[in-house]
């Protein structure tokens, strides 16, 4: 090494970690909200400090050298420790003010959360709430969100998860679609109707087949990974769409079909990190979300 270990710079190490995990300077720069030249200089500075080459460029990709691979586990452990320190600091915060980030699906963010957040703002007007509309499972360990609302239970032992309720869903369609294509009278009729896909068709088929619905990939001709877009496609008469009864209740222009079909259910989980849960503001938001979403 060219310098003493006590001159080790975490900013440079973080740049190295992001680059190793993302595979390129450009992706790592986006992750850290830096410019690509700045991130490249940080990695180069770390290599100079350590006196070793950490990456080799192969085509357009960056490949870890042997020294880089040796470093990676140690730097990743440092990153985990830094994340835990940030979580503990937030968890020890005593004020009912500041920012709380909530991650939820785009449909829940748009149609379920707003009235709950209105009540929350009345109760704690100094809070700043940011809603991250995402259908991905946010990594609470890396503080992408303080609280996540999801339909699968997280597996990490560091996370607290509370089952809020079991949601019911049905197929819904616009009046224009039903007038043009007819109302399905039983499950067998579904095979002759167009369905709107919400993202991965194979995943939807797996779920629908598991509850014995007779549909195939040919039923899904239009769709979107964005839930609000997919729902709007259904509202415009492009097909039947499965939807939470809670959300669909806010759209009188959409009619429930096959109302006797009660097989479509899914859980709603409220999740946060154990350390963050100690924060009064996050505990307040968590508990109020749990209370209101269970209604």
TrEMBL record:
<dbReference type="InterPro" id="IPR036388">
    <property type="entry name" value="WH-like_DNA-bd_sf"/>
</dbReference>
<dbReference type="Pfam" id="PF03466">
    <property type="entry name" value="LysR_substrate"/>
</dbReference>
<protein>
    <submittedName>
        <fullName>LysR family transcriptional regulator</fullName>
    </submittedName>
</protein>
<dbReference type="Pfam" id="PF00126">
    <property type="entry name" value="HTH_1"/>
</dbReference>
<dbReference type="InterPro" id="IPR058163">
    <property type="entry name" value="LysR-type_TF_proteobact-type"/>
</dbReference>
<comment type="similarity">
    <text>Belongs to the LysR transcriptional regulatory family.</text>
</comment>
<dbReference type="GO" id="GO:0006351">
    <property type="term" value="P:DNA-templated transcription"/>
</dbReference>
<dbReference type="InterPro" id="IPR036390">
    <property type="entry name" value="WH_DNA-bd_sf"/>
</dbReference>
<keyword id="KW-0805">Transcription regulation</keyword>
<dbReference type="InterPro" id="IPR005119">
    <property type="entry name" value="LysR_subst-bd"/>
</dbReference>
<dbReference type="GO" id="GO:0003700">
    <property type="term" value="F:DNA-binding transcription factor activity"/>
</dbReference>
<dbReference type="InterPro" id="IPR000847">
    <property type="entry name" value="LysR_HTH_N"/>
</dbReference>
<keyword id="KW-0238">DNA-binding</keyword>
<dbReference type="GO" id="GO:0043565">
    <property type="term" value="F:sequence-specific DNA binding"/>
</dbReference>
<feature type="domain" description="HTH lysR-type">
    <location>
        <begin position="8"/>
        <end position="65"/>
    </location>
</feature>
<keyword id="KW-0804">Transcription</keyword>
């Amino acid at each position: 090494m060219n310098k003493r270990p006590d001159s080790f710079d975490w900013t440079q190490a973080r740049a190295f970690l992001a680059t190793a995990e993302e595979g390129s300077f450009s992706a790592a720069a986006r992750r850290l909200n830096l410019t690509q030249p700045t991130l490249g200089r940080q990695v180069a500075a770390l290599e100079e400090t350590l006196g070793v080459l950490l990456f080799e460029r192969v085509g357009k990709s960056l490949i870890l050298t042997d020294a880089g691979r040796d470093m990676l586990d140690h730097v990743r452990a440092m990153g985990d420790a830094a994340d835990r320190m940030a979580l503990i600091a937030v968890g020890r915060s005593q004020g009912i003010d500041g920012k709380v980030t909530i991650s939820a699906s785009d449909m829940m963010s748009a149609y379920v959360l707003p009235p709950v957040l209105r009540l929350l703002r009345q109760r704690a007007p100094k809070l700043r709430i940011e809603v991250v509309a995402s259908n991905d499972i946010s990594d609470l360990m890396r503080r992408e969100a303080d609280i996540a609302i999801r339909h699968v239970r997280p597996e990490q032992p560091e996370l607290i998860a509370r089952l809020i309720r079991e949601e019911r869903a049905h197929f819904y369609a616009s009046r224009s679609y039903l007038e043009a294509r007819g109302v399905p009278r039983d499950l067998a009729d579904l095979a002759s109707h167009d369905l709107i896909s919400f993202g991965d068709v194979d995943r939807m088929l797996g779920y629908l087949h598991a509850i014995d619905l007779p549909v195939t990939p040919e039923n899904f001709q239009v769709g979107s990974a964005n839930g609000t877009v997919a729902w709007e496609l259904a509202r415009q008469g492009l097909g039947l769409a499965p939807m939470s009864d809670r959300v669909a209740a806010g759209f009188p222009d959409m009619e429930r079909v096959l109302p006797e079909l009660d097989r479509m259910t899914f859980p709603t989980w409220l999740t946060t990190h154990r350390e963050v849960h100690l924060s009064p503001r996050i505990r307040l938001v968590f508990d109020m979300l749990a209370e209101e979403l269970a209604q």
